[in-house]
């Protein structure tokens, strides 16, 4: 990859990335100076970890007391003696909380049973806010302490920081909305339009691609048309994304070549499988109450060191006085067969292999390189097993040489600076349920006659037709669909709303709500400001008298890392103004109050003069 160009902005700016992982979290940042080449830096010193030089990650753990006050967090929550303090104070230990934010689907419903509960007085957005606040304080201290004139530097930048928040591939608009609100609660940004615009989102898969480009992507994967799969193996999720070097003229650009995947088979699930094994193995043992401690010891030692299925493995959890030979416990150590430990990893291995083959099946370009990043990828057994299964299929499986657990945080900063990905793939069909004109010759319409009604215009329509606005695609562009509103009074045109749904099933062209209805999910509500509509031009006459018919488009901007929407309409005023223009298109701001909302005066190709209004629509997630 070519060297990064100098920053072209007109003023100095600080960009900060928070990687809140299931088990560990990190912070990266960059100070953007006009004319200078940006550098990605990491926070490597945290409270209670001051003497651990170069540590780029801290535990994603929070301890709360019964009043909901944070008592220990991050590195402090893993310090010596904290476990005893927590027991004495009846503190709540909150870990793996990131997964409580996951999308609530049928595929993820079982995860709740495997997660530690949140404290009774805390919602997931509150825990995220507390952790964001802590990360922000850590970054502030680090920058002030390690940079020349650090305090002056910080004071000049702290009020306009841009934050990049990473999340698993499977997180969508509702999760992004909650994370942004957590940033508001934490005091990172003010609760206004400008403040909210200072937060960007990036998937962990895309952040990992940016990291890999800068830290060891194979040279032939950088060739135009060649594909690569990024496997971000973290504490909670496995995020699989496929990209290829773009064939367009944009230098150093990549495109997504298949819909990204997110699976709940990260490293914590190895520990969950180990716990399930131990509960069965020690069901009649005097050491059954030591399982929590055994699992902690397994996490810190056995899981990390495991490399050979043919050698016995040991969990050292007690003292030399702890013995129970019939349970394979001698001198404070529990002996496990290597094959049993290998089985704890096997669901994660199978998941990665199956996900890669699925990416190959659905990708519109071939690939041969598999790049493993993320903290779980540093596990040698996982890497060797994945390599063992994928190499015979013709894949080259590699790990970048630099710190794998920094991939997401560093990559998130690179995402903001470099923007390597220019095309993304939609995972689902997005649209809304609407009405279609009844056709007695259409068997599907006849079968749904009970869902028909007569409109204000006197036409019979069928309800609950799924109108796709954004299909499963691989383009960076806008997608729109025409809709209309029929109302009996002009005053009712102050506002309107549209409900956006996603279809997650296998039907190529989903059309009806009652077909595969279990795969339709409510995504959000789009609120539209219609106060600028010229309602006089909407008057119609129907069987019941005068009514108003308004045609509009819902526009979804796809290709960004966050879904955005607009509403557009046009008003024909050619007679009033008396201008026509053929064979050209002009854009002239309309000098009325509507122009302040983005209205444009356009001459269309047919020669009729139209006002085309276009304004942002507000997306609300429940």
UniProtKB/TrEMBL annotation:
| Gene3D superfamilies with a match to the protein in the record | 3.30.420.40
Q: Give the SUPFAM superfamilies listed for this entry.
A: Actin-like ATPase domain
Q: Write down what this protein is called.
A: Actin-like ATPase domain-containing protein
Could you tell me which species this protein originates from? Laccaria amethystina LaAM-08-1
């Amino acid at each position: 990859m070519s060297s990064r160009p100098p920053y072209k902005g007109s003023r100095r700016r600080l960009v900060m990335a928070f990687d809140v992982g299931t088990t560990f979290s990190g912070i990266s940042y960059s100070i953007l100076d006009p004319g200078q080449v940006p550098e990605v830096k990491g926070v490597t010193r945290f409270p209670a970890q001051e003497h651990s030089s170069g540590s780029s990650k801290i535990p994603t753990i929070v301890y709360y007391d019964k009043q909901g006050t944070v008592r220990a967090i991050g590195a402090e929550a893993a310090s010596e003696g904290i476990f005893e303090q927590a027991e004495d104070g009846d503190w709540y230990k909150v870990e793996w909380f990131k997964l409580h934010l996951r999308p609530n689907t049928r595929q993820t419903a079982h995860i709740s049973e495997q997660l530690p509960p949140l404290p009774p007085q805390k919602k997931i957005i509150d825990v995220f806010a507390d952790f964001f606040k802590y990360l922000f304080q850590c970054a502030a201290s680090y920058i002030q302490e390690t940079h020349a004139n650090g305090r002056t530097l910080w004071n000049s930048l702290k009020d306009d920081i841009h934050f990049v928040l990473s999340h698993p591939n499977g997180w969508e608009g509702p999760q992004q909305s909650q994370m942004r609100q957590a940033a508001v609660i934490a005091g990172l940004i003010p609760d206004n339009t400008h403040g909210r615009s200072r937060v960007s989102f990036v998937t962990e898969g895309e952040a990992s691609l940016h990291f890999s480009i800068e830290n060891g992507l194979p040279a032939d994967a950088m060739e135009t048309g060649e594909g690569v799969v990024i496997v971000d193996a973290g504490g909670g999720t496995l995020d699989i994304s496929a990209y290829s070097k773009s064939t367009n003229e944009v230098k150093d650009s990549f495109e997504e070549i298949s819909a990204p995947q997110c699976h709940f088979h990260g490293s914590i699930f190895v520990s969950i499988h180990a716990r399930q094994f131990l509960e069965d193995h020690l069901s009649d043992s005097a050491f059954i109450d030591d399982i929590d401690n055994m699992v902690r010891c397994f996490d810190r030692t056995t899981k990390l060191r495991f490399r050979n299925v043919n050698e016995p493995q040991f969990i050292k959890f007690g003292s030399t006085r702890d013995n129970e030979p019939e349970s394979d416990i001698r001198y404070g150590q529990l002996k496990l067969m290597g094959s049993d430990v290998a089985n704890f990893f096997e669901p994660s291995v199978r998941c990665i292999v199956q996900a890669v083959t699925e990416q190959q099946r659905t990708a519109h370009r071939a690939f041969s390189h598999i790049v493993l990043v993320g903290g779980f990828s540093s596990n040698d057994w996982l890497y060797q097993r994945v390599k063992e299964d994928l190499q015979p299929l013709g894949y080259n499986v590699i790990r970048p040489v630099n710190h794998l657990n920094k991939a997401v945080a560093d990559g998130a900063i690179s995402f903001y600076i470099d923007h390597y990905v220019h095309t993304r793939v939609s995972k689902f069909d997005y649209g809304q349920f609407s009405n279609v004109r009844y056709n007695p010759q259409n068997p599907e319409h006849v079968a749904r006659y009970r869902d028909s009604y007569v409109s204000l215009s006197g036409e019979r329509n069928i309800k609950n037709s799924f109108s796709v606005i954004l299909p499963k695609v691989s383009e960076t562009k806008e997608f729109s669909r025409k809709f209309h509103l029929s109302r009996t009074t002009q005053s009712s045109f102050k506002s309107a709303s549209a409900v956006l749904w996603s279809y997650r099933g296998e039907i190529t062209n989903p059309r009806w709500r009652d077909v595969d209805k279990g795969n339709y999910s409510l995504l959000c509500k789009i609120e539209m400001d219609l106060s600028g509509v010229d309602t006089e031009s909407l008057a119609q006459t129907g069987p019941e008298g005068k009514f108003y018919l308004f045609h509009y488009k819902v526009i979804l901007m796809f290709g960004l890392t966050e879904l955005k929407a607009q509403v557009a309409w046009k008003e024909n005023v050619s007679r009033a103004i008396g201008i026509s223009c053929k064979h050209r298109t002009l854009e002239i701001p309309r000098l009325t109050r509507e122009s302040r909302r983005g209205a444009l005066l356009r001459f269309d190709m047919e020669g009729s003069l139209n006002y085309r209004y276009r304004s942002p629509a507000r997306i609300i997630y429940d």
